[in-house]
Target: Beta-lactamase domain protein
Amino acid sequence: MNLRVLGCSGSIALDCRTTSFLLNDRVLIDAGTGVGDLALDELAQIDHILISHSHLDHVLGIPLLADSVMQRRLAREDYKPIQVHALPATIDALRRHIFNNVIWPDFTRLPTPERPIIELVTLEVGQRLSLCNLPIEVLPASHTVPACGFGVATTSGWWIYTGDTGPNPALWQTLRGRRIAQLVIETAFSDDERALAEISRHLSPSMLAAELAQLDADTSVAITHVKPGEMAAVTGQIAALGIGLTITALTRGDRFRF
Model:
């Protein structure tokens, strides 16, 4: 599996893009502002978008992408809509608050109801599916809205993305006994803002340490979703904790092969 990190920031600033990962050029996990760095031809190749939850920093690329690629995809002999896969509550939020003909046109019915550019597909935690020959599992998350993470089975082991989450014992139970190639886990705030992390169901470095202590195997860990301006504090606090795993911070533009 080829993975491109299009965005991995908790918000926007110069050189910061919100969460988006591109798998094998055709499957997008979350659709943050990083999607906008793709060329039009690259955007038009995306057949599936997996969404972890409904918050704006993870979904705002969907309506803009649909608008950008509609004519190119409709002109293809093998036309098919872009499938957006998400939990039922997230699908409902997209219908009510994005594709509502107020914030954005309803691309689930445009250009025609018979040939829309977007198809919304519901997921359940625990579900396994195959998209573009990628075996994917929907993983539990614990956030302020219904949320999930995703795991992708690769020849190197599982690539795990937690999505936005606070303490999440169900995830570690699910992952027990698996070989993990890389764990991408959010660490949105420094410990100076731990109270805010707890209220908003995110993680800080000390909370991250408690989560990683529940892993039953050594693995490569990459933190993501750090708020702009917090990176030095977050990485410094993680180093000071001596967690005992190889922990790096994702950077926009990173590429991995698993």
Q: What stands out?
A: The chain has a mean pLDDT of 97.
